[in-house]
Amino acid sequence: VKVKIPFGNKCLDAIFSVPEEKPAYGVILTHGAGGDMNFPHLLSLAAYLASHGILCLRFTCKGLNVAYRTKAFKTVVEYLKLSDDYKLSGVFLAGRSMGSRAAASLIRQLSQDDDDDFIQGLICLSYPLHRPKLQSKLRDEDLLFIRCPVLFVSGSADEMCEKQLLEGVASKMKAPKKIHWIDKANHGMAVKGRTTDDVMEEINAQVYSWLRENVELEHK
């Protein structure tokens, strides 16, 4: 279902992937610095989640400024929260690369506003912890403030997220967290000798099983 979400004096393009049965939970998903919501990895994950009973709303925001992207993400969250078509118990914010930075930034902001528990967790696909070859400046400030569950899915050969550095940041985080390493994958999740579909199957299955664990925990 295609929608246009008002954002300032323009609109954000967005698409709902809707499960057959009425969903209780949703995932809001956005892209990295390049591309848009039709990036193949996002399409694959959205279709997988919807086929497993989880609503997925993915959107495009082309700005390269993290504060601007965060603002757009907030607008999309509010749009879904107020939607009459989908009455959800909660949502997980998800993004690829820069999109995951915007999601983390928004969750930190909202936790300071003492918001309700509509946002259940964060999914970071290829979180860009540092610029390539610039490991001394970590983009970890938002992660250290987050309290809700966080899933990282990263390539073990990601040039923007060195394995030891992410594990170090995770050990300092207050939030319940899990890291799933895609063996030998780079920042774009490409692995020599594996097809894109094969890698996406691994990512999708990991995201879904983590979501199930966390939704079940909420209901215990």
Please outline what is shown here.
Helix content is 37%, strand content 23%. It has helices at residues 40-51, 66-81, 98-112, 141-145, 163-172, 196-219; strands spanning 2-7, 10-17, 25-30, 55-59, 90-96, 119-125, 150-155, 177-182.
Summarize the SSE layout with pairings.
Layout: E1 2-7, E2 10-17, E3 25-30, H1 40-51, E4 55-59, H2 66-81, E5 90-96, H3 98-112, E6 119-125, H4 141-145, E7 150-155, H5 163-172, E8 177-182, H6 196-219
Parallel strand pairs: 3-4, 3-5, 5-6, 6-7, 7-8
Antiparallel strand pairs: 1-2, 2-4
Structure report:
By secondary structure, the protein is an alpha/beta fold. The chain has a single domain (2-217), classed as Rossmann fold, CATH 3.40.50.1820. Helices cover 37% and strands 23% of the residues. The protein has six helices and eight strands. It has helices at residues 40-51, 66-81, 98-112, 141-145, 163-172, 196-219, and strands at residues 2-7, 10-17, 25-30, 55-59, 90-96, 119-125, 150-155, 177-182. An eight-stranded mixed beta sheet has the order 1-2-4-3-5-6-7-8, with helices on both faces. The protein starts with a strand and ends with a helix. The relative contact order is 0.14.
